[in-house]
Amino acid sequence: MKIIPNTFHLISLGCAKNLVDSQGLWSLLSQQGFTLVEDPNQAEFIIINTCGFIHDARQESLQALQEFSENKRRGQKLIAAGCLTERYRAELLESVPGIDGLMGTRDLADILPLMQTLNKHSQPHSEVYFPEHAHIVNHPDLPGYMIQGGSSYLKIADGCRRSCAFCAIPGIKGTLTSRPKDDILKDAHALQAAGVQEINIIAQDVTDYGQDLGLQDGLPNLLADLLPVIPHIPWVRLLYTYPGYFSDRLIDMMVEFPQLLPYLDIPLQHADPKVLQLMRRPSDVDWVRHTVAKMRAKLPDLVIRTTFIVGFPGESEHSFQVLKDFLEEMQFDHVGVFTYSMENGTSAQILGDPIPQEVKEARRQELMTLQAGISYQKNQKLCGKVLNMLVEGVDQENGVLIGRTYRDAPEIDGLVIAEGTGEVGELLPVRITAAMQHDLFGQVL
Predict the structure, then answer these.
(1) Cβ pair 64, 81 in contact under 8 A
(2) What is the pLDDT, as a whole number, of residue 258?
(3) CA nearest 5: which of 44, 45, 46?
(4) Contact between 15 and 138 (Cβ < 8 Å)
């Protein structure tokens, strides 16, 4: 099998924001005359968009790079892009000597001069290309979205100006960089024209949108302009909202605009104020209680997802008990629990990593078991109800559809398995007939 000149194979690892960046790379290279190929053995360039956020994600990216490095063919060039390269460029070259090119996170267009330089070398050569970019560079001619079936992610900003002690994102991505509103609206129009049924609005923190542009109340104002111009997209979901910045106006907009799904993703990270202060996170837990109660009163069908970190330095047995009590009190719909991973270059690094991994894992399991019971009880109450399902998979032979209701964000929440017929991308009414702790079962009406 021959390598086809001017072709590339692209692998995207990590979060939804990486998926959008990979779509941008695809579009950029296509505009320059390169062709995407599904078979990596045919590609002149193999590009891996890595994740470097936490230990497990780094290991996945490193394993992929090592695998392709060992198996690449003569004439192929392996390029590592993304968060892992931004953080560990020297270490990567040492541990994966077969990497031909490295680029960072700040400007997707850096890949073009990198590829040109690699093409000039007939012998194996490692090229590191990291021009100085203080923040993310936006390109209005590149899409800020990624379509998957009937759903799409739409990125409105990148980078972060928060100072969470455990997080390396500001060092990787730089400070907050919001996309211009007109670029976002253009993308939304394109998604509507493509027949998308769901837009998931993403950023490191969507509630911070526009602060760097001097905008006040940036996210609500963006939504006020966005929602009326995409009337044929029934689901618009906000992901990654920061505690303390979800305003009353946003709550009212969820009531006013049926498109804006009553789904709140608000990573709280802990419930003990002392631990939250060490994390440099908002520590007013009563604000959470008050805001959630207010939202549930206005939006009876509200779904809340959150995440917690266990094993952060300073988390005592008492702190963990406070977290358990809070979880039981709040009755969240979806919860993700992570064990603390000490990250070099973060302010928490000076605290060390004093809690043993087995203690962290035991706490994670205990919290997830507690949440499993809460989620199961909530899902059981859905039995007999009719909910719209966005179809994401079809098993025609068995007459089964797989999809999600508004209650479940893509990739991170549960699924619906329903008997019936339909096509990927359709929104269909489904009567829920049975439920487990994460997934639902039903019948298409």
Answers:
(1) no
(2) 92
(3) 44
(4) no
- pLDDT of 246 reads 78
| Contact yes or no for 219/182 (Cβ under 8 A) | no
Q: Cα–chain-centroid distance for residue 186?
A: 22
Nearest to 108 by CA among 75, 136, 74: 136
Tokens, residue 445 = 């009406």
Q: How many CB atoms lie within 10 A of CB 104?
A: 23
Look at residue 123 in the predicted model and tell me its pLDDT. 63
Q: Which domains does the chain have, with CATH numbers?
A: 4-129 (3.40.50.12160), 145-380 (3.80.30.20), 386-444 (2.40.50.140)
Token duo for residue 173 = 């991505």
Q: Residue 145: how many CB atoms within 10 A of its CB?
A: 22
Tokens of 273: 């104020």
If you compute the radius of gyration of the chain from its CA atoms, what whole number of angstroms results?
23
Angle in degrees, 0-180, between the axes of helices 248-256 and 285-298, rounded to the nearest 10: 20
What residues does 299 pair with on adjacent strands?
none
Rounded distance between C-alpha atoms, residue 247 and residue 98, angstroms? 49
pTM: 0.91
Rounded CA separation 181/199 (Å): 16
Q: How far is CA 227 from CA 63, 194, 235, 300, in A?
A: 42, 16, 10, 22
Alpha helices, H only, 99-158: 111-119
Calpha distance 411→146 (Å, rounded)? 14
What is the rounded CA–CA span in Å between residue 156 and residue 145? Answer: 9
